Amino acid sequence: MSTPADGDRLLTLQSRRRFQAESGQLKAPRPCANPAMPASITLAPISAADAQLLDNLWQFYELESSAWSQEDIDSQGRFNSLSAFLARLRDPHAVAEGYVIHHGVNIVGFLLVGLQWLHEREIKELADLYVLPKYRGLGIASNVVHQMITSSDSPWLICVFSADVHAQRFWERAFQRLPFSSVRELLPPEFPELREFVVNDGAPKVD
């Protein structure tokens, strides 16, 4: 059996990085882009071939959300709450719409869009929007919302968990800053754990 003296030991993150740097395995960090020249923000539609990429990004999303959602991991150490969406993504006859968010050449998050039945009509729902922490504060999420919703002539449903205070703050700011034609909160909500809003539905905007 190996012992620490034999070199079979767990390395801390700091010591691993030191070893990589000394052995030439650690690549130099990329220079940051000039903040005065922002990179373009684009949405790439997700196909079945992107299922693994989306699932990887979903793990970051669920990890951050688990503080309030209390979501548990499975026996493989992963959050599996995306499994139903991934199954629909592989079914050519199912409705599953998602996008990978790019900031320049970098993948920085994802957007999932659902289709709901509300007041006897179908309506698109902005279901999940996630931007990696490194790229927050650059207006990426607001840009994505503008591309998908405010530039659309159709009404959209936006649901926010009451326990997700960060998402609530984002949408409260977005409702004030972005040019929605209307913003209406559904009271009471269909599900008590949610705050539900319908935007771009033709009625005057509520400030």
In short:
The protein is of the alpha+beta class and about 210 residues long. About 30% of the residues lie in helices and about 25% in strands.
Describe the structure.
The protein is of the alpha+beta class and 207 residues long. The protein has five helices and seven strands, in the order αβααβββαβαββ. The protein has helices at residues 13-23, 51-69, 83-90, 140-150, 165-177, and strands spanning 41-45, 97-103, 106-118, 121-131, 156-161, 183-185, 194-199. Strands 1-2-3-4-5-7-6 form a seven-stranded mixed beta sheet, with helices on both faces. Helix 4 (140-150) links the parallel strand 4 (121-131) and strand 5 (156-161). The longest helix has 19 residues, at 51-69. The protein is globular and about 45 Å long. The model is unreliable at 1-23 and 25-37 (pLDDT under 50).
Keywords summarizing the entry:
207 residues; alpha+beta; seven-stranded mixed β-sheet; 7 strands; globular
List the helices and strands and how they pair.
Layout: H1 13-23, E1 41-45, H2 51-69, H3 83-90, E2 97-103, E3 106-118, E4 121-131, H4 140-150, E5 156-161, H5 165-177, E6 183-185, E7 194-199
Parallel strand pairs: 4-5
Antiparallel strand pairs: 1-2, 2-3, 3-4, 5-7, 6-7
